[in-house]
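ESCALATION

Customer reports they have been waiting on this structure for their group meeting. Please prioritize. Original submission:
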Amino acid sequence: MAGQAARTAIRGERNRRLLVGLFWGAILLAGISLLTTGEGARIVQALTGARLSLIGVLLLIGIMLPVIHARRWQLMLRAISQELPLTAAVELTVTSSLINYAVPGYVGSPAKGLLARQTYGIGLGRSVPTLAVEQALDALALVIGATVGVILAGPASLSWLAASFDRSLAVMIALLLVFGLSAFLVAGYLLRRRARYFVEALIASSRMLANNRQHRTAILLLTLARWVADSATIWVAAAALGVHLGATALLLLTNIPLLLGLVSPFPGGVGLREGAMAAIAGMINLTITGIVAAAVLHRAVMVAALPVVLGLIRVAKWRAAWR
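Update from on-call: job pushed to the front of the queue and completed.
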């Protein structure tokens, strides 16, 4: 027992150091993104005039977002008979987000599944369906929001989107296909010895999740809540800099960049999301400098909120241990 406790303590200390490194790495990436925009001085000037009260609101929403995300995942796991405390689900969600900010590619969700297996004994065959459904629900919400935004923006937006499909986008799609095939082959190689068990667990969990009706409404409502919270963060970040977004602008600036972030091979979609927001701002005649500054502010506060959430969880655990 003592040996197990010592190993757990060592593992926890390593995780804490990893999280600190990931946090500062993400801040560094955000700084590099700012410097490479070409309008660094103007953006910095805009950021210095940001309203502190709205930055506080932005931070509060950023703290709420991983909790909403984690609660939805907790219900999905419960639907397949896997119990996980909400604090643990939040920790894993925040940790995977930090990893996604620090590592190229699409390792956030797989990292959460691996951490859930390592720390709480939830097999990958159990967690993978829930992680896939999470991604699908978030993508569906963004697609619906982007579609409504494009319709409200009118024919001009359609021509802009058509013009955006150039060689660079085709190259990115090709890279995504290559990456997906490579990931599939590597996963098959690593799981070949336990492939039968993994596939059986995967099928069983998928059926349980699809057939569960008890938590379906709550999962959909939490997906809506996350989408609303994501949209609110963009609106508040822009308002903090004196840029007030209408419904159409908000739909376009929120959904299209986040969709691109889902398929971006860059850590956390850094650069690509900000670039997309700048392009959309130019399309709908908004100040590009103000929108890019809002994107940078949004990125910085959302990243900063993650270790704050972890700190709050640690305080809660400490208080519970002393009761």
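Sent to customer with the following note: The chain has 13 helices and no strands.
Escalation resolved.
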